[in-house]
Specification:
single chain, 71 residues, mainly alpha, 2 helices, 94% helix, elongated
Length: 71
């Protein structure tokens, strides 16, 4: 069950990466005021994504420890 969750989270992170890239592309075409707002939102999204990645890495390590204990 944990492996399924980890796989889902990895997929979700890839989707978020694409969403952030799309926002960055929109930002490049926006006016100066909108560009600043886009950049702030992108910065927040990247910080959230990094936090999720750290949590996912901890979960993967815990899952690997569990698997090795059972072996």
């Amino acid at each position: 069950m944990n492996a399924v969750f980890v796989a889902r989270m990895q997929l979700q992170l890839k989707i978020w990466d694409a969403d952030i890239d799309a926002l960055a592309a929109e930002s490049a075409q926006a006016g100066a005021a909108a560009h600043a707002a886009y950049q702030e939102r992108i910065r927040d999204l990247r910080a959230s994504r990094a936090a999720v990645r750290r949590t996912l890495q901890r979960m993967q390590k815990a899952l690997q420890r569990d698997v090795s204990r059972k072996a």
